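Appendix B. Chain record.
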Amino acid sequence: MHVVLILWSVFAAWRWGDWKHWQKYHTTMLFIALSSAMYDVLVNDGAYYLWRYTGNSYVSEEIASLLYTVIAFPATALLFLSNYPEEAGKRVWHIVKYVAIYVFLEIIGLYLGTISHAHSWNMWWSTAFNLTMFSVLRLHYQKPLAAYLLSFFIASYLMFHFHVSLWDSE
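Structure tokens predicted for this chain:
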């Protein structure tokens, strides 16, 4: 499933993303990649994670995470931002559409065993996280410093709430 999603994200970004103006979205594409990489660093202890990709004979857990970080998530940011509607009434539905896609794919991933949850993380938390993530992506596009500050507080809250340690358990 990982390879299919990575290839689909590349195709979707190529087909529906605004590649003529990709520079407008570049910093937010890097922001989502950095955010994903930070999660990987902060929960690199194999004994403690909230969600993680499950490897298979084709793609290891680490390679899957790397591919999502450097390909799928930046492609998503390009798609999300370059198709963001001008009309205020359509903006909420745009965010809801992307959240629904991510939630749907995660449910399939859980069913197929390509992603797993742990330590009280569940689909409710994933849905709230995705809603927050897409809102913060838009905020980053408009006001990057505010998005970094908000992300710091959100990450701090999640680490506190889920008792994520900054030290390995080994």
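Further analysis of this model is presented in Appendix C.
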